[in-house]
UniProtKB/TrEMBL annotation:
The chain crosses the membrane at residues 41-61, 73-96, 102-121, 128-150, 156-178, 199-222, 234-254, 266-283, 289-309, 330-352, 358-377. Gene3D superfamilies: MFS general substrate transporter like domains (1.20.1250.20). This is DHA1 family inner membrane transport protein. It holds the Pfam family MFS_1. It comes from Streptomyces candidus. The keyword Protease does not apply. It comes from the Bacteria. Residues 4-382 form the Major facilitator superfamily (MFS) profile domain.
């Protein structure tokens, strides 16, 4: 494994911790600022929207410098945002800090995906991307549970200071291990934007929004769901998040392993199973054991889609992948924001704390439908290609009939 992949995983670990740790601390943050749980959920929505807006902006700015330097600048922005969260005197300032930190997210993973894919042989690209995202998934096994425990015992502000320190570690890792790469002189914004005229790129991004949004519909409100519905004590949430993180790690590695072999079938299976499991979570959430098992499955199935969807975008936008890659990371977080907002709506409407699971199931099922459409377009394109590129022997009879 190239050491540069380790550096990217370190940065991903810090970013993953700050993205997900807020979910375990929503009750503490809400109580401190005197807001409701749905309002506190805006910290998830705001972060996701910041990624969506920041991904194209920071990526375009990044074309002016080397990829290594841009990754370092992004980690610096991440550190600043988390420090702002830690010292925020009012809820609005904390929300602003979340947005500042989120601006680093999309471009880091987008540029990092290109760097990771360029470090290995073509047939190993999805595996390299998955290795970088392993940092994100390990954050949910180690960083998020420890951050949740620390926030519940010593105060949530301490958690964000520790997350900022993780950002410093990530910055040092990129500086020490990622090789210097010249800025891509041939990158033109017009070419990057042109990639979005490819219907398959747009379909992949829509699958990202809906599929991963299905995960976040449930996970955003997982703490009150586990404590008030399943009956777990608040202290158990830390270890339940470890289970979710273990599912993410497993799903990410499986996705990276099989996306290079059977990308679309993997998406069909993972999205279909995710929709079913989320629907079942409305029932299994009422029992401790079944709730824990379902949590693992949601993490695994959700993250099994990440490497194939990211590779799908890179493949379909091969001529100018930088902006498309970053925008697909933004699409993950657009899904997060959409799902967090919809989940808050159904809770606020009085449908109960398990109602977001139905929202998640519907979103994942919609992603599956788009995957089937995308696969059908692949087959149609392949069929046309076979007709056009048939051998002379195959084409002669057709000509003779005229």
């Amino acid at each position: 494994m190239p050491l540069a992949l380790l550096a990217l995983a370190i940065g991903a670990f810090g970013i993953g911790t700050t993205e997900f740790v807020i979910m375990g601390l929503l009750p503490e943050v809400a109580a401190d600022y005197g807001v409701s749980i749905p309002v506190a959920g805006h910290l998830v929505t705001g972060y996701g929207l910041g990624v969506v807006l920041g991904a194209p902006l920071m990526t375009v700015l990044g074309t002016r410098v080397s990829r290594k330097r841009m990754l370092m600048l992004l980690m610096g922005l991440f550190i600043a945002g988390n420090v702002l969260c830690a010292v925020a005197p009012v809820f609005g300032v904390m929300l602003a800090g979340r947005v500042v930190a989120s601006f680093a997210h999309g471009a880091f993973f987008g540029i990092g995906s290109i760097v990771a894919a360029g470090l290995v042989a073509p047939q190993k690209k999805a595996g390299a991307i998955a290795m970088m995202f392993t940092g994100l998934t390990l954050a949910n096994v180690v960083g998020v549970p420890l951050g949740t425990y620390l926030g519940q015992s010593a105060g949530w502000r301490i958690t964000f200071l520790v997350v900022a320190a993780l950002g410093v570690l990530g910055l040092a890792g990129v500086a020490a291990l990622v090789p210097e790469q010249p800025k891509p002189e041939d990158v033109r914004l017009r070419d990057e934007v042109a990639a979005f005229r490819n219907m398959q790129v747009l379909l992949a991004m829509a699958m990202t929004v809906l599929g991963f949004g299905g995960v976040f519909a449930a996970i955003t409100y997982i703490t009150p769901m586990l404590t008030e519905v399943a009956g777990y004590p608040a202290g158990s949430v830390t270890w339940l998040l470890v289970l979710f993180g273990l599912g993410m790690v497993g799903g990410n590695l499986i996705g990276g392993r099989y996306a290079d072999r059977a990308l679309m079938p993997l998406l069909y299976v993972s999205l279909g199973a995710l929709s079913l499991v989320l629907a079942l979570f409305t029932v299994t959430a009422h029992h401790k054991v079944t709730a824990a098992v379902t949590l693992v499955l949601i993490g695994g199935l959700g993250f099994a889609t990440v490497p194939p969807l990211q590779k799908r975008v890179l493949d379909q936008a091969a001529g100018a992948p930088t902006l498309a890659s970053a925008m697909n990371i933004g699409a993950f977080n657009l899904g997060n924001s959409l799902a967090a907002w919809l989940g808050g709506l159904v809770i606020a409407a009085g449908y109960g704390l398990t109602a977001p699971n139905w929202v998640g199931a519907a979103l994942a099922a919609s992603a599956l439908l788009l995957a089937l459409v995308s696969g059908a377009l692949d087959r149609r394109t392949a069929g046309r290609s076979r007709v056009v590129t048939g051998t002379p022997h195959e084409r002669v009879p057709a000509v003779a009939r005229h």
